[in-house]
Amino acid sequence: MAEVNKEKQHISLNICDEKLDIYVKGDQEAFYRDAAKLAQNTYSKYAELFRGRRSERFIAATALLEIGVKFQMEQANKETDSYNSLLQRLTSDIDEALK
Asked: Which residues have CB under 8 Å from 12's CB, separation 6+?
């Protein structure tokens, strides 16, 4: 277990007035910090729109849903991109073979 901790480093993130102390691999720190920034910015956007009219839980759920939808859309685009890339390669190979 001590070996695992040597590979990881402690970072503190602030999201929605909560301090999160976590251990992450050094090469993943930037991803965690960027994700925390995205979460905080998305939450803040909905808090500004709904605070006082909706619960904090509703605000957090709405922000989480937006982030989830963005992730799903990016995943779908990646799948389409790889398919298009493969199709382009095959088309190119067929064109070369027909020459």
From this structure: 19, 20, 21
